[in-house]
Automatic annotation (TrEMBL), chain A:
This is Translation initiation factor eIF2B subunit delta. Residues 58-71 have a biased composition (Basic residues). It comes from the Eukaryota. The keyword Protein biosynthesis applies. The gene is eif2b4. Residues 117-130 have a biased composition (Low complexity).
From TrEMBL, chain B:
Acts as a component of the translation initiation factor 2B (eIF2B) complex, which catalyzes the exchange of GDP for GTP on the eukaryotic initiation factor 2 (eIF2) complex gamma subunit. Its guanine nucleotide exchange factor activity is repressed when bound to eIF2 complex phosphorylated on the alpha subunit, thereby limiting the amount of methionyl-initiator methionine tRNA available to the ribosome and consequently global translation is repressed. Residues 344-437 form the EIF2B subunit epsilon/gamma LbH domain. Residues 5-140 form the Nucleotidyl transferase domain. GO terms for molecular function: guanyl-nucleotide exchange factor activity; translation initiation factor activity. This is Translation initiation factor eIF2B subunit gamma.
Length: 559, 453
């Protein structure tokens, strides 16, 4: 699959011009690029199934095209008039995330808004600053597209090429993906769909708790005191016991941290695979994937899946579906177990070693390093650097309500590293002493933004103001194809009761639910823009934040 | 499969011999249901489909013919008989069924009546990968007068000292007053690891234990432990802090000699070593710790953990004394919402039946009777002008006219003669009370029973 190099944050119009170039081979590129492009812009969950879906879509499009060809010949005269009002629509484009409305005008009358909708999709991706310039380019592109279609329609002999040029443009509308369900909790239709799906999988639905701050009312908010196991039968038969245990550990916070959650997930999957027997008349490759689906829903209900877990699940599903059907069950199982072990070994353990090696080069004697919260990777790096006799001291910054910094502090002091501990409110006081900031990441998004524990973007911002270099350490398996520019759209809301604190026997916020104007917000993640990050240290090397999509592309090519 | 349920129904009811000399304890009627129905109902409600019931032959025969158990309990009951005179403790019984135990077990006693949320106990067991998880409840004072008790209630009941950590979940110390010579002795190593310990004495042990499979295997190797409550639980609680379970050297050895019977410390051997590595990696990378303030890892690196869930509110009774039996009968109607008066009972119109009374099936209640706060058993006949208050009447009893029964327990098939005045008495099974007898605070049992002490 050949692709053009995608330069993020620059004109996505570049990809558009590729689209309307009437070369035959670019048609193919467009066909596969179409959904790929969409992935950058919208949040597609189905990367693993792209190929077969694209083939199906292509067939569907071709059928549609043949229909539209006939229609277009009748409506050709009308299209000239309607093009002008439609082209005025692109400039006043709302927020990047509103994909659904753009899908609506597109299928309405297919040939007309098709050229107009293409700029629709490309325009929201770049930053708002580029918008006025964008609209001119958009208009130009539309006009070119219009000319193409007219030219193609006028030539009866070249109707096939007309179809080909039409196909890529109309490709774009039905490929627009809907918003993922977990950020549409305030939409009752979505909630109903989720409830139906869970009922089908025989998994209890976890109900939301407490008043949600309006800006985040589209996210789930659960209470730790109402675990999902309340509604399950005790010798859990529907869900494998190790998955129930894992879900409990996630929801109670016993297994916390991106790496720990992935390792625990893979460990639980190993138990599931060990205990699995193929039912008669079923194939392991298909049945096992279907068995895993309710488990994943269950874990999602206990605590929303992290990006690393998502990638691990994708990998496992791919491995399972790639098992040849003539493979015996025992063989298949051992193969899967070794795959899982290898994945953990390569992507987590060895990656940590590689990252430490690179990071230690960046640590010099006399450094004062600032870390935030408890990142297993950063702790690993610091411990290894200390063992390699680098002289440095560490400042651990911590924040409520999780106070994870205490655990990081304990691990570092246990090794003998001299540490200082402050709360995040003292950040600007302590930063003049700091020479470097090391941050861990929960995920690295496709547009170079870093998703990490809430407070990280604060630290990066203040460090940038003090001209202190900020280094983010992240393994490549945490890179995800999502795109986010703010912390509101997709986040996680933790239990609001965690914010209550008891001092001298009194809990001031005990009855916060009774106060109608009070909402407690316990965010878990936030998103740091790439301008604040100086370097990302991954197991592939030290890269700038903007090269994350390149890594993603290379990864996809490998697979 | 995750958990197997084991119901211990072989106990003799040694603390209420007056009631149990004729009816075995699992079949004593509480709220007109056999006592064993309550734990079975609890297990069924929670979602168990099979239960292993360890009982005596006598009970087994009666259970298979008892209509309540047959109709209401939809689970599969696997009845295992043990000899009555073998004097087996609960741990011995577990050892007896070791072959049937394939996964972790949930051991329940037949005299437990509770509405506890079992998932709390099992969640502790699952989430912390615990070896033992148990249920306890705050004890309630029994307010009812117990028939046959002379003088004040004895406070010499052996107390249990239960030590829990700051969160109230981790079990640190468990000892019975009988085992302590002079005072409560707590090891310094425990205090160093858990500086804040709450020691409670007013707790009722519900005798509901979640045990790992390795504990059952360990019991098979150690035949000296015969009671779960008395010996196994304190042993496990002590072993949490013993140096030998925690040192890595011993763990390596136990990996090598998997089935050797000599050391009685190999409680943690069954997981394969690769998975152990992954679990260790998870714990290493996770930023969670169960305590703070010292330099140790989560759980202080200990591999054996015991947890307890202490219920604050809710019903939890162990029906092993007469007082508990009476209290349980009072509260039994609250646990299920069957109609208080059984539809097949023949109740005449001019009798007064209080709202908190239970009338069993096929009863005959005649005119002008007054029944308040009482339980009338199956097939009991109550003639005219009888006043029954605060009492428990078991099955097949005949109460002639004009009787006045207050605060008493009348066992099955007894006959109360006409005009008798019974106050706070215990009338044994198949006894006859003379007409116009007046008894207060007496235990009336057959002469053959007086020999059993």
């Amino acid at each position: 699959m050949k692709r053009e190099s995608i330069v993020p944050a620059a004109c996505a119009a570049v990809t558009y011009t590729v689209l309307c170039h009437p070369h035959h081979h670019t048609v193919f590129i467009v066909l596969t690029d179409g959904p790929g492009n969409k992935d950058d812009i919208t949040r597609s969950k189905n990367e693993g199934k792209e190929l077969s879906k694209e083939e199906k879509q292509r067939l569907r499009k071709q059928k549609k095209q043949q229909k539209k060809q006939k229609e277009r010949k009748n409506e050709k005269s009308e299209t000239e008039k309607e093009k002008t009002p439609v082209s005025l629509l692109p400039p006043p484009r709302p927020v990047a995330t509103q994909k659904a409305p753009s899908a609506l005008p597109a299928p309405a009358s297919a040939p007309i808004p098709v050229p107009a909708s293409a700029p629709f999709h490309s325009s929201p991706a770049p930053s708002p600053a580029d918008k006025p310039a964008k609209s001119k380019a958009e208009l130009k592109a539309e006009r070119r597209a219009r000319q193409e279609t007219d030219r193609a329609a006028k030539q009866p002999g070249s109707s096939s090429s007309g179809i080909k040029t039409k196909v890529p443009l109309s490709e774009l509308n039905p490929v627009v993906k809907r918003l993922p369900e977990h950020v549409q909790v305030d939409d009752p239709a979505v909630v109903k769909r989720l409830a139906k799906k869970l009922e089908r999988q025989q998994i209890p639905l976890r109900s939301d708790y407490g008043y949600k701050v309006s800006l985040f009312s589209h996210l789930h908010q659960y209470s730790r005191k109402a675990p999902l196991t309340q509604q399950l039968s005790i010798p859990s038969t529907v869900i494998h016991p190790s998955i129930v245990r894992l879900g409990l550990q996630y929801s109670q916070g016993i297994v916390a941290g991106s790496n720990a959650r992935s390792v625990a997930l893979l460990h639980a999957f190993k138990q599931v695979i060990r205990d699995y027997t193929t039912p008669p008349n079923e194939e392991l490759s298909r049945d096992l994937v279907n068995k895993l689906k309710p488990y994943i829903s269950f874990l999602n209900q206990c605590r929303p899946l992290s990006a690393s877990m998502g990638n691990a699940i994708k990998y496992i599903k791919k491995e399972i579906s790639n098992i040849p059907s003539q493979c015996k069950e025992e063989e298949a199982k051992t193969k899967l177990l070794t795959c899982i072990d290898r994945y953990i070994e390569e992507k987590i353990v060895l990656a940590a070693k590689a990252i430490s090696k690179y990071a230690i080069e960046k640590i010099s004697d006399g450094d004062v390093i600032l870390v935030y919260g408890c990142s297993s990777l950063v702790n690993n790096i610091l411990c290894e650097a200390f063992e390699k006799s680098r002289k440095f001291r560490v400042i651990v910054v911590d924040s409520r309500p999780r106070l994870e910094g205490r655990e990081a502090l304990r691990r570092l002091v246990q090794r003998g590293i001299s540490c200082t501990y402050v709360l995040i409110s003292a950040l600007s006081y302590i930063l003049p002493e700091v020479s470097k900031v090391f941050l861990g990441a929960h995920a690295l998004l496709a547009n170079g933004y870093v998703m990490s524990r809430v407070g990280t973007s604060q630290i990066a911002l203040v460090a940038r103001t003090f001209n202190v270099p900020v280094l983010v350490c992240c393994e490549t398996y945490k890179f995800c194809e999502k795109v986010q520019t703010d912390s509101f759209v997709s986040n996680e809301l933790d239990d609001p009761d965690d914010l209550m604190v008891t001092r001298k026997g009194k809990t001031q916020l005990e009855n916060w639910q009774d106060v109608s104007s009070l909402g407690l917000l316990n965010l878990v993640y936030d998103v740091t823009p790439p301008d604040f990050v100086d370097l990302v240290i991954t197991d592939l090397g030290m890269i700038p934040c903007t090269s994350v999509p390149v890594v993603l592309r290379v990864k996809n090519l490998d697979q | 499969m995750e958990l197997q349920a084991v119901l211990m129904a072989a106990g003799g009811g040694s603390r209420m011999m007056d009631l149990t000399y004729n009816t075995p304890k699992p079949l004593l009627p509480v709220g007109n249901k056999p006592l064993i129905w309550y734990p079975l109902n609890l297990l069924e409600r929670v979602g168990f489909e099979e239960v292993i019931v360890i009982t005596t032959k006598e009970v087994q025969k009666m259970i298979s013919t008892d209509p309540k158990v047959k109709l209401d309990v939809k689970m599969k009951l696997d009845l295992v008989c043990i000899q009555e005179d073998a004097d087996m403790g609960t741990a011995d019984a577990l050892r007896h069924i070791q072959q049937k135990v394939k996964t972790d077990v949930l051991v329940v006693s037949c005299d437990l009546i509770t509405d506890a949320a079992l998932h709390e106990v099992v969640d502790l067991f699952r989430a912390h990968n615990a070896t033992l998880s148990m249920l306890m409840s705050k004890a309630h004072e029994f307010t009812e007068t117990v028939p046959g008790q002379k003088g004040k209630k004895k406070t010499g009941e052996q107390r249990d000292f239960v030590g829990v950590d700051d969160t109230g979940k981790r079990l640190l110390f468990m000892a019975n007053e009988a085992d302590l010579d002079e005072g409560v002795v707590i090891r310094k190593s425990i205090m160093r690891k858990h500086p804040r310990m709450h020691i409670k004495t007013g707790l009722v042990d519900a005798h509901l234990y979640c045990l790992k499979k390795s504990v059952v295997d360990f019991l098979a190797d150690n035949k000296s432990i015969s009671s779960i409550r008395g010996e196994l639980v304190p042993y496990l609680v002590r072993k949490q802090f013993s140096k030998s379970t925690n040192s890595p050297k011993v763990i390596d050895e136990t990996h090598q000699n998997l089935k050797k019977n000599d050391s009685n410390v190999n409680l943690e051997i069954q997981i394969s070593s690769r998975d152990e590595e992954l679990l260790h990696l998870t714990q290493e990378r996770s930023c969670w710790n169960d305590h703070r303030g010292d330099m140790s890892d989560a759980y202080h690196g200990g591999r054996l953990r015991c947890y307890v869930h202490i219920m604050d509110e809710g019903i939890c009774y162990r029906v092993n004394t007469l007082a508990a039996y009476i209290e349980a009968n009072r509260l039994a109607p609250k646990l299920f919402d069957e109609p208080a008066v059984h539809p097949s009972a023949v109740v005449s119109e001019r009798c007064l039946i209080g709202a908190d009374s239970i009338i069993g099936a096929s009863c005959q209640i005649s005119d002008k009777t007054s029944i308040k706060r009482s339980t009338i058993g199956v097939s009991t006949t109550v003639r005219e002008k009888v006043k029954v208050t605060n009492s428990i009447i078991m099955h097949g009893v005949t109460i002639e006219e004009g009787c006045n029964i207050q605060g008493s327990v009348i066992c099955s098939n007894a006959v109360i003669g006409r005009g008798a005045d019974i106050k706070y008495c215990l009338v044994g099974s198949a006894q006859r009370i003379e007409p116009d007898a007046e008894s207060t605070n007496e235990v009336i049992v057959g002469t053959d029973q007086l020999m059993e002490i």
